[in-house]
Every structure is written in C-alpha cells, then in structure tokens.
Amino acid sequence: MDKAGNFIGWLHIEGVNLSVALVEQALSRVHFTAERSPYCKALLAAQDAAKQRKEKVWSHYEETPVEEVVPVLEEKERTANYKPVFVTEITDDLHFYVQDVETGTRARVEKVESGGKVHIFYIDYGNKETLPPSRLAPLPPAFSPRVLPPQATEYSFAFIQVPQDEEARADAVDSVVRDIQNTQCLLNVEHLGPGCPHVTLQFADSKSDVGLGLVKEGLVMVEPRKERQFQKVITEYLNAQEAAKSARLNLWRYGDFRADDADEFGYSR
C-alpha cells in the first residue's frame, strides 16, 4: 500500500501475470519501480518484444543509438565562470538551447513535404516549426551562418541522470520548462560530454542551482563522478538526493527503486 492508500501488487488470471500480458500486448509500459520486482526480467523482455513490433503504445518508437562515452580530462580545480545566457528551448531529453545575444529568426530547412509544408530548425533558438513556403525568405549574405554562426547552443545538465521512464522524464522536463524557458540564467561549462557540453545553470536573480533544485524535488538522480574537482558539488547533490529519498518525493515515492544491478537498466547508485 502506498502513502495515498492505494494497493500495489500483482494480479494473476489462470496463471497469467496480467501486468506482463498488458506489456506484451503493447497496451502499457514498464514503470521504473518494477526493477526491484521478481517479474522484472519478464516485464522487460515483454516490453522489448512489443517495441520491436512497434504496435499501439510503441507505434512511434525509435531506438535511441548508444552514445560513445567521451573521457573527461582531470583538472586540479573546478572552474566556475558563469556567464549570462537566454534559455530558448527545452528538449524532451532535458537538453536545452541558449543564446548569448539577441538575433533575428534565422532558420535551416530540414525537410520539405509534398504538400508544400516546410520543416525548419531555428538556428538561433533551437526550436522547430512547420511553415508554408510563403512564410520563408532567403537570408541576406550578411546573415549567412558562415558569417554569423548560429546563436543557439545545445547543452545538457551536469551531475544529474535523467529518468528513463517517460512519465518521470516528462515531469522533470515540465518543471524545467516552467522555471527557465524564455528566461535569463547563468551558465557554467563543467565538462565535455557526448553530443554537447555538460553545464550547471543558475537562476539569474537568486543564483540558486537549477539542476540541484531538480534533485531536491526528487525529479532526477545524481550522476556519480569521481573527478576530484567535482567532489564538493557532488556531495551537495548527493545530500539533496538523500533528503528527497527520505521525504519520498516523486521518483522516490516508493522508496529507493534502484536494485544492486541497477546499472544493467541504465541507473547508477
């Protein structure tokens, strides 16, 4: 029974685990809290099979390519050199785009549909849109990306792990969108990572850490790092995570769901 008085358990009908059957028929997804259950392997196997068939809840599923881990060079001290930026877009995987300066709305054409719709990517903001050709015009040479590089840069939060569960990840993304999209923040590059730099963000007015706030709310987990220069900030993040676990906030509402073999499923203790 959870804190709200709801019963949580397994229902078997004629020897069939109904949870596994629903996942197998692509009618539901595996919740991350199932990773400590005795039926975890059966649930994950059923989900993998449903994903491959691309049926029902997985009809639009696209397998995420495995990213190569980029080794991080050791530094003697952590460098904190925050600069003001404007957050223009938050993505579904909790990456974000920022601008250093205000610019015009330049766009790159990504795809043209047969019906005349044009898919564009705003290179100075990081967001996408579909427009009719009548809304578009060639760029003057002075504003070409070769002359003026794209002003929107992609970043990812340092020191946190984004939940793999879609609903939990959506909660974290919604929180970040409410707090920082279309606002000015302070950004510090912590280290390079696969795809884009990993950074910490601060609210411009309070100077409080946006990523640390997500940890305090139990919306994300801490990414363990062993570099000496990061140990002070990692300790602060881990203390915040323990407080969120004790209060059973969001990810931790059913306790510590990470099993000893959590690495197998993409989580680290």
UniProtKB/TrEMBL annotation:
InterPro entries from the UniProt entry: SNase_OB-fold_sf, Staphylococal_nuclease_OB-fold, Tudor
BP term (GO), one: mRNA catabolic process
Organism per entry: Hirundo rustica rustica
SMART domains, per the entry: TUDOR
Coiled coil, from the record: none
GO CC, alphabetical: cytosol; nucleus
Alphabetical list of Pfam families matching this protein: SNase, TUDOR
Protein name per Swiss-Prot or TrEMBL: Tudor domain-containing protein
Domain Tudor span(s) in chain numbering: 79-146
GO molecular function annotations of the record: nuclease activity; RNA binding
